[in-house]
Amino acid sequence: MSTIDTGLTLIRNASRRVSRVNGWMGNAFKSWMPTGLYARALLIMIVPMVILQTVVAFVFMERHWNTVTRRLSAAVVSDIAALIDVYKSYPQDKDRGQLKRIGQRLQLVVDFLPPGDMPPPGPKPFFSLLDQTLSVQLGRQISRPFWIDTVGNSNLVEIRVQLDDTVMRIFAQRSAAYASNSEIFIFWMLGTSTILLIVAVLFLRNQIKPILRLADAAESFGKGREAQNFRPRGAREVRRAAQAFLEMKGRIERTMEQRTAMLAGVSHDLRTILTRFKLELALLGEGPEIDAMRKDVDEMSMMLEDYLAFARGDSGEIAQPTDMAQALEELRSDAERHGHAATVAFHGLPVVTVKPASFKRCLANLVSNAARHADTISITGHRDHRYLTVTVDDDGPGIPANMREEVFKPFLRLDDARNQDEGGTGLGLAIARDIARSHGGDITLGDSPMGGLRAAVRVPV
To answer: In 286-415, which ranges are continuous DSSP H helix?
Structure first.
């Protein structure tokens, strides 16, 4: 292997490692991030503001507050050092009056105390930039025992320096040694930022509400329910999305209405023809051929009704709270009335918002489909905070796994399967799934613990 190949191999291995690390970090970062738009938008606003304020505060504290305070403290200590030099150089000033006048010109109040008048060191403030800076400057420029009080009097700073035969006490203005307006800047920065953040949160909340209303309206429409008092609101882009949703909803409803109207016309025409057939057959008398033709006409009438029911769906019905436990009990009574053993069980809160007539028809189609091919039927309902699930189990022959999706196709009848009905049209399961999907749910088929087929209807609540 050449040197170039070795280098390319190393580069590829390194890129794979970097890609794996990047993917791991990306997944970890996603797991920490909030999932809601409101929380993410707040994070987008808060994090840059906090970082910006931290940087500004750090730069201000480091470059302005600390620097100015150090320079002011160094200037005050330099004046004190100069006074000490004057005291040593002019011993003829016995009453120290000249020294005090010089101190007044420097805006310092100077007096002298007995040699032993040095208080013991007091407790230091937890965070005092002035105390720390003065201590450093006194130790650097004077190099004598000293005592300072930056807490006792808020406007003055007291400094005592041990000299050879006396203690020099100096009172200096606090503002002369300390950048006192720095805290005001910090407080104003934090206060205005808090107010602006509150205003931004309230504004963002009002901007998020139209998006949540649009999501609720879309979810209600997907469940077959009407979105009450929904209209486009909020920002231009949100209003545009809401308007597009309303136009899409209108087109879907118009398509369903046109389909229903067209099929109603077809139904009227075909029923007229079938009625004429029945009248003509009644006039022909009796005979094997006449009976066969009557049977064909009856089958055509049933197929027409089933097809119209499938095409019409649940249009026009309003979703309302329905007691599903009572509805399942009615299905059990119907099954027992037709000579089948049936049991019912329901778990959870029974009241669910559905289109009662169409949803009951969906369940009735599943129960009747099971009743054609089984002796025992078990109906179970379960409702949690998200879904209503109704399962219909039987002990019949079942449907092969590879055909469980095919049987939902309209007019499909299996030759050897359980839904082969001599008088049926193959629309029962198709109608049931169409109703379930109009409620935002679906129907799945599987193996039943009773040995036959399990049909499970799950719709959101």
So the answer is: 288-312, 324-337, 356-371
Contact 115, 58 (CB under 8 A): no
Q: Using alpha carbons, select from 393, 449, 326, 397 the residue that is nearest to residue 334.
A: 326
Q: How far apart are CA 218 and CA 441, in angstroms?
A: 14
Closest listed residue to residue 124, CA positions, set 114, 135, 138: 135
The residues with which 146 forms a beta bridge, in sequence order, are 161
Whether the predicted pLDDT of 340 surpasses 90: no
Calpha distance 199→435 (Å, rounded): 47
Contact between 350 and 324 (Cβ < 8 Å): yes
Express each pLDDT in 14-50 by its tens digit.
Answer: 777 777 776 676 666 666 767 777 777 777 878 888 8
For 168-196, the pLDDT digits (tens) are: 888 988 878 776 666 677 777 788 888 88
124 versus 443: the higher-pLDDT residue is 443
CB-CB contact of 444 with 436 (8 Å): no
114: tokens are: 């007995």
List phi, psi (to 5°) of 235: -65, 165
Range in 74-78, 128-132, 249-253 with the lowest mean pLDDT:
128-132
Q: With residue 173 as reference, give the H or E element that holds it.
A: strand 167-173
Within its chain, how far is the Cα of 187 from the centroid? 34
* Length in residues, the chain: 461
* Mean pLDDT of all residues in 315-320: 74
Q: For residue 374, what are the CA distances in angstroms to 367, 368, 378, 393?
A: 10, 10, 11, 10
CB 372 within 8 A of CB 423: no
- What is the 3 state secondary structure string of 388-439? EEEEEEECCCCCCHHHCCHHHCCCCCCCCCCCCCCCCCCCHHHHHHHHHHHC
- pLDDT band for position 152 (cuts 50, 70, 90): low
pLDDT tens digit sequence for 349-376: 999 988 888 888 899 989 988 888 888 9
DSSP 3-state assignment of 384? coil
Kindly report each contact of residues 407-410 with a partner whose C-beta sits within 8 Å and lies 24 or more positions away, as own/partner.
407/445, 408/433, 408/443, 410/307, 410/310
